[in-house]
Amino acid sequence: MSVHPPPEPAVSGTPDGESGSTHRAYVADSTVMPELTWSAVTLGAILGIIFGASSLYLVLRVGMTVSASIPVAVLSITLFRFFSRATGSRPATILENNIVQTTGSAGESIAFGIGVTMPALMILGYDMRAVQVMLVAALGGLLGILMMIPLRRAFIVKQHGSLAYPEGTACAKVLIVGEQGGSSARTVFTGFGMAFLYQFCMEALKLWNQYPARGFEKFKGAVLSCEVSPILLGVGYIIGPRIASVTFAGGVLAYLVLTPTISLFGQGSGAIFPGTKPIGDMSAKDIRDAYILYIGAGAVAAGGVISLLQALPLILGSIKSGLGDLARSGGGVSSTARTERDLPLWLVGVGSTLLVAAIAATGLFPTEVDLTGRIAGALMIAVFGFLFVTVSSRLTGEIGSSSNPISGMTVATLLLTCLIFVLLGWVGTEYRVAAVSIAGIVCVAASNGGTTSQDLKTGYLVGATPKAQQLSILVGALTSAIVIGFTLLLLNEASTVVTNKAENLPKIAAPDVSKLTKTEAGPDGKEYKVWWVVDPIPGAEAGKYLVDDAGKAVYLIDPAINGRVDTRDDGSKVTKYDAPKARLMALIIDGIMRGQLPWGLVILGALISVLMQLSLVPSLAFAVGVYLPLSTSMPIFVGGLVRVAVDRIKKANAEDSDSSPAVLLSSGYIAGGAIAGILIALLALAPSSVSNALDLSRQLPDSWNQGAWPSLAAFGLMAGVLLLCGLGVFFKGDDPSAVSDGVKGREEDL
Length: 750
What we know:
single chain, mainly alpha, two-stranded antiparallel sheet, 60% helix
């Protein structure tokens, strides 16, 4: 029998750790209602996979994700309500909707951890296997959840009233308003549908150019461009005008100042390392690939370290307070009260131990790594994992997910891991792969630990059963992990370019063909030897080449992730992913374990971040703008401008602005555009006749295809709808009070 809670909060009987008052949950401890049901877990797992895939797409593009908890909660309320009315079945309870958002939230946090680390393997010149990505995602996700469970009483119960958990509190508001009859789901659905249709028309039907650009004849090297993407427009609105402007400013410096400067002073010079051809012969894209990327990577690395140092007092305080509270709370002792039941502590300990053992025993590390190396790697994961899960869980409560420096924690993990490997003399290629895997697991664990703490805070406020939430998020993490590896490889495979154009191939033959043992079939069906050029050398840029028996390169296999060729030999364009955080991880590994980097450029980028920080400008946001193409930061900037217009016209304060329905519409833009992008990527795997049949640009005049106005008009329409939504012209019936600042970017850098 389902018993719904009274409209007024009920006393749960749990005393606050700081104030000594009694916590009042929405659902009383004595209330009995359906909670951990198959329908709730299944819907949560499906939504987690969808939002995980869209988050992975986003993190590969701009190095950040958007919190999925509130959109998942809103969709859960709406879908269950629709199903109940359609079938005449009982409505879902608030606790079932909470299970859906808890299960679904795991996908986004896993996607973030995987997206910022595992593509580094491809950047370093190694193959990336789906099984390896799946293992990192599953082991890291499960480990992060299990390590956070003993901290629940310390952070959620004992520190209630002092640790705010802004996203978790906002999600609780959404669930309570939804239970009382309010819903903003149609805003999310509308944004999803509009962005999906827009992306399909742009990328599949090619009705307008995705990257309108304009060069300047007397200002060589400067190119003003904009990716007319609803995804990035929504990101810009959510993160707000300040960070959007700072990110765009970094792009202006890189592509309207540094690139023209290099072009101007490089006239008449020869090839300058790491470039492989004279600067005078380089296009703006060539200069970016050869020089700006290293400057940007150095800036991002320094910005990440600065953000970690800024958070160091909080981190040290978190460790001290967390361990002290954990000891005082008795390690999360089980309670007979429903709202205080956790998974048994012995089960958490055994599960964590088995996961660490599995890390040492599985195919996570290359076969060349001996048992000693595997055990050392597993122990580093256990130590760094528990440290940063504790830090992430507490920092999430203090400053929220949007300001939680997960990237800085991952950088610290990678730095320490690489230094330990160097001290032990483990500098072979297999240990570079091991370093990426260790950093990946710790990053996923820290990310999922923070997400789990937010979910448990939501449950604490609405009166959920912690054990039910912990089981559901374990299921969500496992299902998302199984899919995430295949999604990552699918996105890469769909936009991989295989070309035999002379301008893309090395001017020299492979130095020693006899050492090339791996073979691969080319597009012509013939078998070729695989030549990996990890570092650029005179006459050969970094990349994967198929060479004949004489060592002559016949094909370039250019990946989607950090690839340099975005046009196939038949003239069709593909989407490339810059993966800025993964590039940073590769930079650290190369710098410490190989020492073969253009350090002058890297140091120049680092000093740019230091300069920005001294000028009181958020250095990491600026650094990401330096690294990303200007075409990517431009639509983010436009989204920020729309937010400014809404705030100025409505004279809204920050809290009201964060409560605007436009935040949910932006979330729909992001999810719909990203899912469309993934589905469109599948078309690249189909026969070329399919994509040619969909391509309507062949029937349009050249003035339309090459002009910028169709693109700007379509993008302006999406921006206009977002503006009107923010002003309340659209979706007047929606209750925006449920929407808070819980829908934000996960990382502090954007």
